[in-house]
Write a structure and sequence with these properties.
alpha+beta; Alpha-Beta Plaits; 2 domains; 7-stranded mixed β-sheet; 9 strands; about 20% strand; globular
Length: about 300
């Protein structure tokens, strides 16, 4: 018999090794979206020369600038016009990862709202949700030797460019097809998107931020000011969300005891009593070490300064 949920109930969840990756992860995602952007373009008749369209473009540029400023390795983003998705895998070893994502999300939402309202805009709405993610393996190694990668290597081999320039070109290269693996089979992202898309009819009204109640142990911690809590269901997904007062800053040094870690969340997300055993069995090992790649060839005549 599985001990997954029983361990959680007793407060003795077996932790995972540091840096371990699993085929099944517990993820968190924030979907943030400017309110009224589409309506502005409708009023402009989808004519980019219209003053209304110019104002809509200015809103997007301000929004995307703030998104870029907040994006980090621990809070990465994917931007699509007037919306953006932030994402991260949660840790079974530390609740601090959960807390950090919540804090950053609330800060981002407040920054976008303040900027947009200062320009007489309606603000933004954000939904933070948690769910499972199935790790998808996408092999990008072909880019090292095909297409653009092959061309850059040939330039170095011929002496046409130096290694430093080759690195610059590789970093700036655009690909004909691309993918963000962390957003594939990501049910946290699906949940956040469906909830936000429901809008006022589903309880997600106005320029507010809504946070998944599954992230918290019991109720909500003192550092999070909640205005309302309601149940939600859509396309087989169910949950409960807190409408959070985003104007109240969350202290960086707040007690993280009120939030759940990855395995604790998994136990409340799945009705399967053996869910933790299944997740642990999907462990893939430590994937932090990058794959060994062949070194760049030296340009003819030797490297600069040799």
């Amino acid at each position: 018999m599985s001990t997954g949920n029983a361990d959680t109930a007793k407060g003795h969840v077996q932790k995972s090794g540091k840096g371990a990756k699993r085929e099944i992860e517990v993820a968190v995602a924030l979907w943030i979206d400017l309110l009224g952007y589409g309506s502005m373009l409708e009023k402009a008749g989808w004519d980019p020369t219209s003053p209304i369209a110019a104002a809509a473009r200015a809103r997007i540029e301000r929004f995307q600038s703030i998104v870029s400023r907040f994006s980090t390795r621990k809070f990465p983003s994917f931007v699509m016009n007037d919306g953006a998705i932030f994402f991260r895998d949660l840790s079974p070893r530390s609740r601090a990862v959960t807390f950090d994502f919540i804090r950053r999300s609330v800060e981002l939402h407040r920054a976008v709202n303040e900027s947009d309202r200062a320009a007489e805009g309606p603000g933004c709405r954000a939904v933070l949700a948690t769910g499972f993610r199935i790790r998808r393996f996408i092999d990008f190694s072909s880019r090292l030797n095909d297409g653009r990668g092959q061309l850059i290597k040939k330039k170095v081999e011929s002496g046409f460019i130096e290694p430093a320039q080759a690195i610059n070109e590789a970093l700036m290269a655009r690909h004909d097809s691309d993918s963000t693996p962390e957003l594939q089979h990501n049910y946290a992202m699906t949940k956040a998107y469906l909830a936000e898309s429901g809008g006022t009819k589903k309880g997600f009204a106005g320029p507010n931020i809504f946070v998944d109640a599954h992230l918290f142990v019991d109720g909500t911690p003192a550092w999070l000011k909640v205005d309302e809590t309601f149940d939600w269901t859509e396309r087989g997904m169910t949950g409960r969300f807190h409408r959070v007062d985003g104007s109240v800053a969350i202290p960086m040094a707040a007690d993280t005891g009120g939030v759940r870690d990855a395995f604790e969340i998994a136990s409340v997300l799945s009705p399967n009593p053996g869910v933790l055993d299944t997740i642990r069995a999907s462990k893939l090992g430590d994937l932090r070490k990058p794959a060994t790649a062949a070194p760049l060839p030296k340009p003819r005549g030797g490297a600069p300064g040799s």
